[in-house]
Amino acid sequence: MEALIVLVLLVQTLIQYPHVVGDGLDEATRLRMEMREKYLNQEMTRLLQELEQSSLEPGVRAWGALLWATLEQWHFWALLGVLGLLLALAFSLRKRSREPHGSAPQENASSNLEAQEDQVNGRANVEENNAAGREERKYGANGDQEQDRDSKLGRFIEESIRWPVLDRGCVITDLIDDLTRAFGHHLSNRFYPVPQQAIGMGSAFEGWSPRKEDVVYHVLVPLSPPPGHTFHLEPNTAAGMPGKDFCVRVEQVHIPEEKLRRNKNSILLYNLCTRSYLDVEKTTLWFRLMARASWSRLPQSKHWRLRVLPSRRSCTLRLTNNRESFCVEVLFGVQQGNSDIYVSSQSREALFTPSTVWPETYGVAEMKFFSHIARQAPPDSCHLRCLQLLARAGGGRAFSNYTLKTIMMHLLNTIPMAQWGRRHCRQRLLESLDYLRCSLQKKRLDCFVIGNQSIPPQIDLPPHFQTLQPPNLFWHLAQDPDAHREARQDFSFLRYRLKQLFTAIDGEASSAPGAPIA
């Protein structure tokens, strides 16, 4: 009798703790196993009680002796059989746990167990119906999987990429205006350029940023000539490349002789010019000194620490308080007539720019174009998200951020804004890649502002701009075969990274590509 009890306890232990290898069981399956375990415990208890009671009856005693003898002879094979059954049960449970919508296990003959399992199945059905309802609300009643993939891509970009703080833009331009107004204490009765109202431009003011962490805010400060002076823009033809460079010639008109003698050391021609041309580096040094001297007069100085960083052609300011820190690059410019086109102190990319050369910049016109697009774009527009993703994935190699922005502006100017919603994100990215591929094949990418007949009228351009031949931003690829080969390799790299992103989004692994893209 004791051996039989030991055998029963051994079987009970193995049933209670089956060694299931693989994924965890779902909640419904665990409930079924717990109820089956309870039922088997009851059956084991009943069997033991019947065996104990049978010891009082001679006939049953004989049956127990016979059973004991049989178990003594076949206990080894019985244990093997029980273990085989348990392994089969474990395999079945493992297979069932990996099925998304597994059917209920086979019902036991006991009516109580059937009722308990019906209750569990009812809970499982309610959970499945709730999940189905959530999926239907999430993806729409029609279950358009293609639109869901595109919307998922838009959501991933929106949630995983850090965006510049646009509300800070007005604060920054107001700060620079306060700083230049404080110059008046030092500039009174002196012949220095007069700073005008600051204009925010560049990616941070357009609503996107190619950088992952430290966003740089670019601000243009137009300069007007001081009293008794004029500025004349003269084209610089010595650059030997597409795009326009200018020199700012300073002319002095009639100034009283007594005033000249009194302010001889403050004359613009003497201090900030080289051979009668406004010098970028001297102007930058002058502005940097004035910023340091005037900062303490501003109320912002009580809450912010100002650090003026060294720079040859711009005044770079680092502003820090107890909570945050950001960088402002102040560029200087001279306006062409009353248009949105300026010559600026910003240097040409990858080229040495002489100190008396002021390259033409279209940053103000481009910022106004993005503002025009923002007023027409749908609430869930993806154009800035696509641009930022392209810049993070492929910018900084053969393709500058300005190249990718130019492609995006061409597409924005030709594709209706109704087709820039979140669900169109994938298609717009593919079209951007196709535009870049065609431009590489032709070794030509036209400037957006010059020679564009369809530019919005809200942008003020010089009258002759729309009739000019647009400069080729890929002129260097036509001149240098090695640069063209490198650009094609970088295009393949960019396409591969975006393909990785699409694959991850389609596989619902949206967290996987976050690190490499950013």
UniProtKB/TrEMBL annotation:
Keywords: Signal. Transmembrane segments: none annotated. The keyword Signal applies. The keyword Signal applies. It comes from the Eukaryota. InterPro entries: ITPRIP-like (IPR026250), MAB21L/cGLR (IPR024810). Residues 98-150 are annotated as: Disordered. Residues 1-22 form the signal peptide. One of its GO terms (cellular component) is membrane. Residues 105-114 have a biased composition (Polar residues). PANTHER family: CELL FATE DETERMINING PROTEIN MAB21-RELATED (PTHR10656), INOSITOL 1,4,5-TRISPHOSPHATE RECEPTOR-INTERACTING PROTEIN-LIKE 1 (PTHR10656:SF40). This is Inositol 1,4,5-trisphosphate receptor-interacting protein-like 1. It comes from Pipra filicauda. The gene is LOC113988830.
